[in-house]
Prior knowledge:
Helices cover 80% and strands 0% of the residues of chain A. By secondary structure, chain A is mostly helical. By secondary structure, chain B is mostly helical.
Amino acid sequence: MSIIDLLIGAAIALVCGLDRTAIxxxxxxxxxxxxxxxxWLLGEPLIGLQIGMMVELLWLAxxxxxxxxxxxxxxVAIASSVLAVxxxxxxxxxxLEMVMLCLLVAIPLGKIGQYFDHFSRQCNVWLLTRTExxxxxxxFLRAExxxxxxxxxxxxxxxxxxxxxxxxGFFLVPxxxxxxxxxLQHSSSWLQLALPLxxxxxxxxxxxxxxxxxxxxxxxxxxxxxxxxx
Amino acid sequence: xxxxxxxxxxxxxxxxFLQGSWNFERLQGLGFFFAMLPALKKLYPREQxxxxxxxxxxxxxxxxxxxxxxxxxxxxxxxxxxxxQNQNAxxxxxxxxxxxxxxxxxxxxxWGGLRPLAAGISLFFAAKGLLWAPLVFLLLYNIVPLTFRVxxxxxxxxxxxxxxxxxxxxRLPDWAIHTKEAxxxxxxxxSAFLVFQHLQREELVSWIGLLTLLPMILLGLLARxxxxxxxxxxxxxxxxxxxxxxxxxxxxxxxx
Lengths: 230, 256
């Protein structure tokens, strides 16, 4: 386990966590971008690509509409990449099984991200009264700074989620590894297929399109037959 | 008094930080105030500025990619207001009138349609192990939002309140539905590709891949009933692990 790796992960978690809601929203926060990016910086880009691919579609159907806060798939992808790269080296098993275990541990922990995000948005309510007080006093620069304090709150939420998943992973994965190693040897490639398909199924079930099932089945059947017969 | 291009660019850049202080009480209100302040500083004397600026800290919520369109119009209206010394009722009315519909259109078009579409296409590249799949996603996804962010702001400022009519003529709700349909088709193709690729790797017969549709439809129905993605993921993972162990035992026995 390397402190530098953890810090690189934290830096990416911070930047991508802010892109998620607070600034830019150019989608570097999506798992398909964030996970390969952090894994590339740690020297194992393919691990990040595998993780990004499995997480990308999982919560894509949960839209950040109004006050709704989806689970933090950004931090799940980043933290599980950091865990997979580091624990793979530490435990001497850098294969798909380790990637799957890290991911399966990180996914439930990602739920905590929702609470951190919720808390940061709650903290931002206090900034409103401070801003109004600054404006009443004619302190415009201080009023502007309140908005930037909101960005700090979002930063802390992102880092908090990353820390919880990474710390939880570093405790749980070495304990679980000897217990589930053999089971994962038989199932990891099937799990790698299943996670994106679960995401697609959830999108299919929740998308607001009248002919979604027909379009999906037609497209699936046509593509599959083409690949099979050609 | 017309605002300088430099000031307008300053406002546009600040709109990229619109949701920085998102909160449950006034949502993007503080962010909109933060974005508009450089323009307000140019338009109003210091003694009037506090009162005008405070009006901007109220409730505001729209889609972040369409906020520049609203901001462009509001800048135009503020210029007129500063000259005529009007009340701000018109500006508030305009914000209220367009913010919610723009939010609904933006959510459906960008979050609900374009994002799954771009993700679906880029995952084809990721499934082939190509490391530039993230770049494909970023490129595919960002072209449309960036166009909306830039052209919306420019058009909003140039046309003022009439930009709403231009926006209506573009029939964006229809585009949102078409984009979602395209996303469903791409995701269907992607699922078939992933299943076929996996069966070939495992050296299994191809036709069983068509059976994948059954569990997928079942999972989709469960998701529609409100079962959480986390629960579906965990249940699917446990079932796969148990089935794999069972299958491994069966093949071991057959080999003996």
